Amino acid sequence: MSMTVAQALDRLNTPGYPACWEKLAPAVEAEFAASGCKYVSEEYLGWVDREFGALIHCRELLTATAKIIHETPELAIYTLLLSHAFADLQGNFYPWTEWQPPVTEDPVVGEMTAVFALLSAAPAIYAEMNGRGVPHSVIAANIQSITFGIKIFEASNDRPGYDNGRMRWSANFVRCSHLTVGRFNFEMGTHYDPIYIFRNKAGEYCALPADTKIHKSGRLLGSAGCTDEEGSYDADFVETDEYWEGYACNGVFITKTRKRLLKSGWELVIKPNDKCIRVHIPRAESFRHDIVAESYANLRKILRECYPEFPEIIICGTWLLDPQIETIVGSESNLVKFRNDYHLFPRLSSGKAPFSFMFLKPFEKYEDLPEDTRLMRGVKKLYLNGEYIHEAAGICLL
Description:
It is a single chain. The chain has helices at residues 5-12, 25-35, 42-52, 59-70, 73-87, 107-119, 122-131, 136-157, 164-174, 289-306, 324-329, 334-339, 354-357, 374-384; strands at 178-181, 184-190, 195-200, 205-209, 212-214, 233-235, 238-239, 243-250, 253-262, 266-270, 275-280, 313-318, 343-345, 392-397. By secondary structure, the protein is an alpha+beta fold. The strands form 4 sheets. The protein has a 6-stranded mixed beta sheet with strand order 1-2-11-12-14-13. Strands 4-3-10 form a 3-stranded antiparallel beta sheet, with no helix packed on it. Strands 7-8-9 form a 3-stranded antiparallel beta sheet, with no helix packed on it. Helix 10 links the parallel strand 11 and strand 12. Helix 5 packs parallel to helix 6 (107-119). The longest helix has 22 residues, at 136-157.
């Protein structure tokens, strides 16, 4: 049965979609009339699973929902429309914040349209990454990361599904801007913190903030618990032909002591907006330090052989770098060993990160938070006492 994009959207009563999709409609309608939506067919899904293990996380669910979408024309053409949006690797047609899944009797069916549309990019992902010589195992892990989002959704909602946040995150793998290597997702990005980082010939590091306001506590003004401006000061940064100068950082805090670094003895490692590799930490994976170290070693090899335009500099920003974690879990824990790979520097912190990455279920008051692990118990105690776990950042040279 032939169907237009407008008819499909009308039938589905889709709550949100970008106006730019109107430009995609003619090509989508022509393809659908000729061959339907191949991305929910047994043939395509069988291929993407055999080649990349793409359905590994939810094979039974995806197979069942693909059949329903395949047999429902408005859902099939909608999935095809999404696939055309994701085919533009520059993201001009990505739905981003406007996207909400189509309303279906079983919400999972409507949500899976995004998953199948993202998986439609598997051939393009393979072509881009294989063309650079990226190992097949890493390509497969990137494509598997798309469906891993179903499990992440389930951890917060007690059912499998997909939402706008999962869709936007998975779009990074479609754009090939991220690499799933071992324990981590590595983003080929930029250093966006207002911090200059230096190293001397003895291997010592120094971080100097650049033109930002500092709270009297030493954290960046605007961080959780650090919003009052009384006692705050401007941390200016100065460069001359002979030296760099600014307020010295002491780990995650900024001191009121100015430090001058002579160019004869120090080198600039990275400045704001320089290229770097940014670390993202998937949930529910081991932090055993040999696994972490192997991930870094494999990344280094891939960068040298496949992405020589990127420096071997890792920037990590996460609440897991907060020095308070050591007090909770002990100095011999894997989390502290992970932190010790990095030279820390301060970052603007909302203080909310544990509720996105550890305490995943909705709650009304801090007393309701679970205490399943030593880390959970310690973090919960801090918030009950009116304190915070702060996001921090660090640099690691491979």
